Sequence to fold (751 residues):
Amino acid sequence: MAGRIRSMSAPVTPGTIARAAARRPWMTISVWAAVVVVSGLGATGIGGVLTNEVEFANNPESRRAFDALEEARGAEPLREFVIVRSQDHTIDAPGYAQFVGSLLREIRSLEGHVVPEQSTSYFESGFPTLLSADHMTTIVVATLVGDIDESDEHVAALMEVIAGHDGENGFEVLTGGTASINFQFTETAESDLATETRALPFALIVLIAVFGAVVAALVPLGIAFVAIVLALAAATAIGQLFSLSIFVTNMIFTVGLAVGIDYALFIVARYREERHGGRDKLDAIETAGRTATRAVMFSGTTVVIALIGMFIVPVSIFRSLAIGAILVVLAAMVTSLTLLPAILALLGDAVDRLSVPFLSRRRLAADEHSFWARMAHGVMRRPILTASVAGLALVALTIPYFSIELGAAGAGTLPEDTSVARAFHVLEEDFEVGRLGPIQVVVLAEDVTAAPVRDAAGALVAALEADPDFGEAEIELLGPGTGVVSAPLIVDASSEQASATVDRLRNEIVPATFAGSGATVLVGGMPALNRDWFGVVDDYTPIVFAFVLGLSFLVLLVTFRSLVVPLKAIVMNLLSVGASYGMLVLIFQEGIGAGVLGFRQVDAIEAWVPLFLFTVLFGLSMDYHVFLLSRIRERFDQTGDNERSVAFGITSTAGIITGAAAIMVVVFAGFALGDLVMFQQMGFGLAFAVLLDATVVRTVLVPATMRLLGTRNWYLPAWLEWLPELRIEELPEPPPEAPVARESASATGGG
Fold:
């Protein structure tokens, strides 16, 4: 069927782009196939640009201390603490020394992986710090070749030797150290990516339930995978300029599946609606582009704006997570704009193939007698009661958030059955667990051997040894102008107690011992690095909140030309985010229901999780909110009837929003099934907040508050009348007067 004649000067819009891609589907898909192949090849190099290191752009004290040490002595030796433990015998028992000696010889034989002369045991060195108080556990120090960025191969060889001896002759053999911890985190993160695929069958079931047809359900999954491949390739290219966190791949997969499926769902649903309404194929694709794709472009832009807030935080992990999420959102937008129309053009009505009889007859139209319509009218009959109950419930869920403790993922958060986690617990029981990352007080002076500096350093050592929070301290002279005082903490370097000890060291102990010495003193080491990390999060959280909330307010103000709508949207989104925070604290920090849900209770919530959740959730929840409010505003402009407009908006968007939210919940819940506690927290937080947003906020708070405020919802002061109106969707052209003959389900081709 011939399409309508179009002006050569027609503006470029999502609708015209969709039509252009659909008119030449084979060419469009061929270009995309080439792009996907090239991107897939490029994405294979993603591993080479990822790192476990956390880098700061604001050069905190811990970083300056690290740089001073590196300048004075080069890269710090990469030590692994190989633990040998007997449940029945002390080191004096026959065979204990022989077992340790044999193990040490095998470790030293790892040519190219271990530095033999810097590897030792208690039996060779006699260092008492390598022996537990009960004399049943000892430590073998193994120094690896190279630095942390090239340590995976070296520590893997060491861990293979250790695994071969673990359990031999009744000895437990484990290893713990920076390299093995990083290696285990990387392996577990990769394993969690595989776990994420568990969510795909459930996401497919949700899509089939929404569309009532298998082919229509498979299309969004394909679009999501293309977006993920593009984002991985782009991340690999960006990683050539600066290193990205290893967790960027997890972010790309999680956010990519969620938004890629959701964006395609909106467009495919609108295309099918237009075909069922009688439009020909190309007109249906263009109408979907003019409405649903346009909404997707707006939604994606909103998400990107929120994610940009994370770039404000001068820490590499935030910027890496933001880069991964932004790249995959942009990729999902581009594929939805061009590739999806071409696929729909080839499929035609075959998109309805493999239909499920009962589900395929279900319609998502705004039926005034539907469940959603009855729900909306029921809420609006008692708006004060329903809004109060829902609002108070969300506030109650938020209350636990005020007791939140922020921390960093240490070895103790790794799966309990890993060698590294077991080593951590042994160190915690029998040694100072802080030896994995000791405090390093760097002393800089013209001459560190001068009496005032030497006396001050001695006073510091005495103060540390008298302090119950520190283990045995030692002084090392690195050159005429640099010295370092090192001491392990008795607690995990990532704990809140360790951070409090660093504060006390910086603010009380160091100033008291080095007063008048003339030296510059920098407190570094892993505990100090973690403290600076937590400090950055504390300092920049209000700034990120202000940035995201401010930009969101401005976007909604221009979109709806109302002061009330953006204020309400912000409050409602904050309520759902706050409730998600509260549940994180209850489950992960307090342990309420953690075992039942398969999660692990820990001492603290990962420091980056709340801020990340805020930026992502604010963008994602704003998608649904704007989609709903745009339908309400459109009907209100036509009728002036507030209550019926609200009911129409909720009912007309219920099926798609419910399906889209269900998919996000499934994808995020799949991520929460992984082994890394930080991702359990992130996945659960995202899933719970989206669930609240799609249920309590959309079905109760929105209609109740819209009913209470009436026409005041759209209040705009006269002095803001100059603002332009940015509609989310172009108004669609009316459908044909008489239905056109639909193509057969086997139709393909471009039209």
Summary: Residues 76-186 form a domain with the Alpha-Beta Plaits fold (CATH 3.30.70.1440). The chain is about 60% helix and 5% strand.
